[in-house]
Amino acid sequence: MRHAARPYSQIMLSDSVKAAPALRSREDAAAAALLAPSAAAGEGAHPSTADFDAWFAGRAAAGRYQVRQIPFGALRGWSFEEGTGDLRHETGRFFSVEGLHVALEHDWYQPILHQPEVGVLGLLAKRFGGELHFLMQAKMEPGNPNLVQLSPTVQATYSNYTRVHRGKGTRYLEYFVGNRRGRVLADALQSELGWWFYRKSNRNMVVEVTDEVAVHEDYRWVTLGQLGELMRRDLLLAMDTRSVLSCLPVPRRERGALLTDVELLSWLTEMRSRRHPSARLVPLARTPGWRVGESSIGHEDGRCFRVVAVSVEADRREVSRWTQPLLEPPGQGVAGFLSRTIDGVRHVLVHARVEPGLVHTVELGPTAQWTPGDHARLTGQDEPPFLDALLTADPARIRYEAVHSEEGGRFRNADSRYLVVEADETQAPLDPPPGYQWVTPGQLTWLLRHGHYVTMEARTLMAGLNLGSVR
């Protein structure tokens, strides 16, 4: 028997009485509340801080690692492209070394790394005894000064986790891509180093899970409190670890700030509107002042960064042998915040930094940032303002100090001394020069929920603030 079709009006009425989805608070206060107990927990369940050094030393010693510089002619799968001179992989993937032309107050050319794909930096979180722990990885990267550092759970470019290298898969990737499991605590696209990368972004994620996780021997659960202790050590926490940790929604009790959030955004928008350099990729063969030699690409004055080739053996990586280019800076850099407590609220002095490789060209960076012989030589700038206040600071005023390296998968022996220094009115006036502004850590935490507002160097300093490493 055929049933009469329902009139359209009845269908609409029937559908309209279905339960509407429940509204939820726009702020995930519970996620932020999880972080405070973990930050206060110096001893975690897996393992204790006292056991960490033995575990980490054991993992570093467990692998057979060798990195040696080679001539470009010994690169396997890499070659200089005919016509452009760009250094590329035969697959067209991974990254390339190309030229960049920048027109700002000063006109210059330089090589730059071009990697037009978004990588995943993922940190897995889980509660043990009610305290949030994070799954960290002891990982070797060929450019790290000490080779093995503490990395996020997942640290992989798109080319790597799609296995262009034909090696092993990326452990724990399923928690961060596709139909992933777990509760997202942080998720934002963030820039990489804007002087050395062209418009490179990584997805920074923190995901909490409740199910059982099989832990590989190269991984360990640690608390935020433990990470805060480790953040004070030199050359231990990898750049990608510091980047993800800076994105955590750490709760802050700040009863005010010198600028409202709207005023801060308006000021940054003004900086971006006013200083918008022209930065475009050009053939590497047509970058004046730069020379391609048998074993390096360098500036003719010998003082800037250079690009070299290396051969790598690493039996605990997805691929055990490979060759690749790396960018090598000329010396150790410096990056730091000057800090002042204003009416009981900590503020840090940020600089609206112009970096040609950034997506929006301007992001909030440290008060002062400097690599000897590097971009200042290219732009004709003198040493940046406030650098002397960092370098000559009274030790009693140094609230944080450690040496950290940059991403060892692309840069060789690239490390900087990071500082947070308590300043006074003579060193850092409350009415700063143009391009500088006083902001609170809470305001930077708010901006870090979104992408492309805070540079990698400033994120390293924010990781120290988030973890309680800054006194």
UniProtKB/TrEMBL annotation:
Coiled coil: none annotated. It comes from the Bacteria. Gene3D superfamilies: EvaA sugar 2,3-dehydratase subunit (3.90.79.40). Residues 50-248, 262-465 form the dTDP-4-dehydro-6-deoxy-alpha-D-glucopyranose 2,3-dehydratase domain. InterPro entries: EvaA-like, EvaA-like_sf. Transmembrane segments: none annotated. It holds the Pfam family Hexose_dehydrat. This is NDP-hexose 2,3-dehydratase family protein.
